[in-house]
Known about the structure:
The structure holds 2 protein chains of 2 kinds. Chain A is of the alpha/beta class. Chain A has helices spanning 19-28, 47-53, 67-80, 100-108, 129-146, 162-168, 177-187, 211-230; strands at residues 9-15, 35-40, 57-60, 85-88, 114-118, 158-160, 192-196. In chain A, helix 1 (19-28) links the parallel strand 1 (9-15) and strand 2.
Amino acid sequence: MRIRGNGKVLVIVPAFNEAANLRAVAEDLRCFTGDVLVVNDGSTDGTAELAEKLGLMCVSHPFNLGIGGTIQTGLKYAFENGYELAVQFDGDGQHRADQLDLIIGPYRNGAADLVIGSRTLPGGYKMGRARWLGSRFFFWLIKLLSGQAIHDPTSGFRCYGRKAILLFSQYYPDDYPEVECIITAARYGLTIVEIPVLMRPRLTGHSSINRRRSAYYMLKVSLALIVDSMRSTPALEDA
Amino acid sequence: MDLTKIVSLSISLTIFVFVVWLIKERRLREKYALLWLFTSLFIILLTISRRILEITALSVGISYPPSLLFLIGVLFLLMVAIGQSVSLSRLTQSNHKLAQEVALLRKTVTSDLNCQKQKDNC
């Protein structure tokens, strides 16, 4: 696999109706020197216009594709424009710009292709009990299927190196992608590193996973994990 | 010709005519057109001659012929439904990819246009 890159970093901000939070996110990212790309997933609240006004780059889906497609669009953009690194940075204000250097670190040291910002490792924050149980379950399932030990597999604060950008711009799960793409990455032999990061509680809005949906979430993701670990690994097209 | 035969024959002929009409109006792709054309012909055949069903059923050891009909019907519809799910998944995937392409291309086009505008201003 040929890996090239210009050393540039792209911060990908997935946004679906995040106009209420976007200003704070843009403010937070002001100190960051790389490029910021807002991927507007068919918002109806003027997210795209606000992003342009705040001086952020923005691509807009013609309609809502879900979080998986949104992250993938960002990664496709990163790939096509030769970025060496991409960081997923949620548009709801949970992730902190002062943690960016931390999450980029392991890639820069050559130790990782995919870095996951974890809230559960020492130094992270406390999560609710239901979420903790879910995380433990996925921890063991991932460990069983791929041998990787990921303590916070649902964390969306991630850094993608060139190899991960290449892989995920071609194969990325549609819905609830966070856990499944760990298996995909492991299958392709990417080095995955988890580091503790600080996060904020959400500013407004609500998590995409509520109690009623969580049973469906667990079942769907478990099935996806098992199926994905059975897949073959066709060669990637390095365009 | 008894009443049941008249009714069932008219139903199966209606299905056949409907399928032909759909094909004529180009509302069915060739791939599906052929499937439904043969299906409706098969239904007509069964209504014309009950002997076909009876002989087939008895030869495979089914003593009540209509149950063979139900078995074939259910299995056939199941296969069709799975086939539709596969097509739908493929369509969703290509739709997805197209939406992403459109988003990325629109970004390229607008930034190219902005560049052009800036050059023109100079």
